[in-house]
Design goal:
Elements (H helix, E strand, L loop, with lengths): L1 E5 L3 H12 L3 E5 L3 H8 L10 H10 L3 E4 L2 H6 L3 E4 L14 H12 L6 E4 L7 H10 L7 E4 L9 H6 L3 E5 L3 H11 L9 E5 L1 H32 L3 H9 L20 H14 L5 H13 L2 H10 L7 E5 L15 H10 L3 E5 L4 H8 L4 E2 L3 H5 L4 E4 L11 H7 L4 E4 L6 H6 L3 E3 L8
Parallel strand pairs: 1-2, 1-4, 2-3, 4-5, 5-6, 7-8, 9-10, 9-12, 10-11, 12-13, 13-14
Helix pairs in contact: 1-3, 5-6, 9-11, 9-12, 11-12
Bound molecules: nicotinamide-adenine-dinucleotide (NAD).
The site of nicotinamide-adenine-dinucleotide has 27 residues, from helix 1 and helix 5.
Amino acid sequence: MHVAVIGSGYVGLVAGACLAETGNDVICVDKDATKITRLQRNEIPIYEPGLEPMVQRNQTEGRLTFTTDLGTAVRASKVVLIAVGTPPGEDGSADLQHVLAVAREIGRNMNEPKVVVTKSTVPVGTAEKVRAAVKSETETPFSVCSNPEFLKEGAAIDDFMKPDRVVIGVDNDDARAIMGELYAPFTRQGGNRVLFMDIASAEVTKYAANAMLATRISFMNQMATFCELVGADVNNVRLGIGSDQRIGRAFLYPGPGYGGSCFPKDVKAIIRTAEDLGLSLDVLKSVEDVNDRQKLVVLRKAQRFLGDDLTGKTIGIWGLAFKAETDDMREAPAIPLIEGLLDAGARVQAHDPKATDQARLIFGDRVMYAADPYSAAHGADALVVMTEWLVYRNPDFERLRKLLRRPLLLDGRNLYEPDRMAALGFEYHGIGRRSPM
Ligand SMILES: NC(=O)c1ccc[n+]([C@@H]2O[C@H](COP(=O)([O-])OP(=O)(O)OC[C@H]3O[C@@H](n4cnc5c(N)ncnc54)[C@H](O)[C@@H]3O)[C@@H](O)[C@H]2O)c1
């Protein structure tokens, strides 16, 4: 099948590469000419495990091409996926200007009937706006589908190739057949089904999924705070509730607050959509409040042990990305932490395996970027773990303790065992963990 993917970011690039991998002819479009030139040279502008060889292979074999020319890509394709960004507007609602601009341009290039698919995360009702925008430019018949994307950065290829489910909102049989054919290679294994539904339900499903996951995180973060107050260990509580099949194990890890390009903006956007309709989504408003406070929990711990004024203190930080296996720093909890530390007068020396370039765009030279984890700890008054990168899981603790000026270890991801850390000579504090005996 001939497919155009408009927007070659985390979602568009992964979708384009995976669709080419299954034999489709895919043209990926982006308005960012530098990005496209790099992609044409097989240089991947983001870090995503497994993406580079897949792009390389499919580009070499001629199934995947990159262009800034949206019109040519649309005219050559039967299915057009819209995967451009939908950043939060000032009032928290999803900003649809990119989606609708693309829709109008698709309309201007509608040379034969096509299926136009919204893959970006868009509020309920957007498919109808896309339909109107395309229609304003063409007489040619076309279909609109909603096909929200559920991939996780860091495991995006796997998620796309072996999805738990594919959600497709359609309103006619032809579009349903075409979308079913497109996704058939990814849903052959038992369990990973295509769920066809009406368009509005597909749009809501994406927000409901992210809102539910964010809710679990904020819930566990509050349980962690509660555990600290009553002398319980949230890790035991997590295991205790996670083994209940009705609850399940995933997304029960407390931490420094959720970040990234999706949860914060999607929670905001669904609250806003509901508000416009006179409904207050109180649960989600609390989820957001808890998360805003949680992003400062590690900073408050640092100040509890080192004092409010951190002038003359050095803080080492392990991990800048909002989670492991990505270079994405959008809404990363490390940002308010570092801003808070710098405001309080601290010197910050940070390490991240992949996100240093992104961090430089945010902090410039206000932060020292360490080439390896141990250099970030060198001479520091505390070491803070902010991202659960594998490389931080089992370091040389003896070496680490000696490098630190004060062996204060603030573990924002609960990577280590409190008793073991105490035995190794650290002053250790996790999130909601019971203090060492
Ligand atoms: N990143 C994720 O993990 C993830 C997961 C699921 C869904 N989503 C959703 O998918 C959408 C895209 O997210 P992303 O993370 O890939 O964003 P991104 O910012 O990485 O990529 C978006 C790309 O679209 C391009 N673009 C913008 N306007 C354009 C136009 N008019 N023509 C051509 N290209 C244009 C930008 O240059 C950019 O490269 C968002 O709605 C997001 O919420 C993201």
